[in-house]
Amino acid sequence: MRLIILGPPGAGKGTQAERITESRGVPHISTGDIFRDNIRRETPLGKQVKGILDAGGYVTDEITNQIVADRLAEDDAQSGFLLDGYPRTVIQVEALDALLSGWGHQLDAVLELQVDEQELVARLVKRAETSGRTDDTEDVIRERQRIYREETAPLVRIYSERNVVVPIDGVGDLDQVTARISAALDGLTSA
Ligand code: ADP
């Protein structure tokens, strides 16, 4: 299965992605995790992107596309993957299209986790108390929501036109949301 999970910051993408990839046996590829890992290890890439992540901005498409191209070329991603946090811009959609079509592969679905903004900010402010993430402050959270609305929400339209979007209600407890995603994926494979 080749999947994308899309949704605003705080929608619970990371947690759900973890669960889905475990049950479906495909790698969870999170660009946010890759960047944070590089920052922690103080690699050249980490040093380059730290300020951007701290401010809630987007890393350049050039850097991000390269990282994903390298990751998707690894062995464990050949039979499937779940992309979490990528693509986030129209340029990234185009880069992913080129990559997949070069390999003769297609996306099976774009899972769109839907949660309204008030609920999101409340969740993130709460997460900030325990996450230690330097981008989990209220100002940065609002900035990330704004950028998401402007840059990433339009991607839903692009993928909708290709009939690959599967909307998922992201409000409820974690297990409920996981069950919804699971049912949607079962529907895909049996269709
Ligand atoms: P969240 O979903 O909570 O916003 P992520 O872990 O997906 O968090 O991303 C954290 C940060 O990493 C983003 O705010 C951005 O700075 C950077 N980032 C992650 N993915 C991308 C991407 N596809 N393009 C540009 N920047 C990205």
TrEMBL record:
Region (NMP): 30-59
Its EC number(s): 2.7.4.3
InterPro entries for this protein: Adenylat/UMP-CMP_kin, Adenylat_kinase_CS, P-loop_NTPase
This protein's record includes keyword Nucleus: no
Subcellular location: Cytoplasm
SUPFAM superfamilies, per the entry: P-loop containing nucleoside triphosphate hydrolases
Top-level taxon of origin: Bacteria
Catalytic class of the enzyme: transferase
Keyword Disulfide bond among record annotations: no
Family as reported in the entry's similarity comment: Belongs to the adenylate kinase family.
Known partners and oligomeric status: Monomer.
Protein's name in the database: Adenylate kinase
